Amino acid sequence: MLISAVEEGIESLLRSTLPLSSEQGDVSFEAPSSTWAAGVNRLTVNVFLYGVTRSSQPPRVQAPQRNDGQVVRRFALPMVQLSYLVSAWAGSPRDEHELLGDVLIRFLSHPLLPAEHLGAALESSVQLAVENDDHNRPREIWGAVGGHVKASFSLQATVAADAYPWETAPPLVDRVNTTVHALPDRRQ
Fold this sequence. Notes:
Layout: H1 2-17, E1 25-28, H2 34-38, E2 43-54, E3 65-67, E4 70-73, E5 79-89, H3 93-108, E6 126-130, H4 138-145, E7 152-160, E8 167-168
Parallel strand pairs: 1-2
Antiparallel strand pairs: 2-5, 3-4, 4-8, 5-7, 6-7
């Protein structure tokens, strides 16, 4: 659910900000292999997920909440980084570069995926960053999927994994009672 919710948000952002309606073009999450590329016959933004790792960001702590009069809490949620190779497909290299530039600007101007593009499935914000992937170079990814090298960039989406359930918290301490007792006489 986590990955599909992030991808639905990315598609919603691209469709609304480019604009790229479903009549004008596609947003695809398929591997950009040569077989897939042969079937592309209209404007397409390809956002290929090539890596899923635990993020170096610290786990996200959530504040306790009230649910039916009880306080519930959960462990801090681990952060997950989704790595995407983003490319554009059009009739000519010039059109592809223009579309890729427009997509790049949309991601650069949205360091957080806006809430209106996220479904109810995610309780976490999604951080977006265009950055180098030191472990996977685009040329290596293109070779691994069997595609031809194209202009592309790496997009990192970081999100809290909804890994732990909400649990009823123990009652809050609202007062402390003290009692005093005499100590036994030990002189005997």
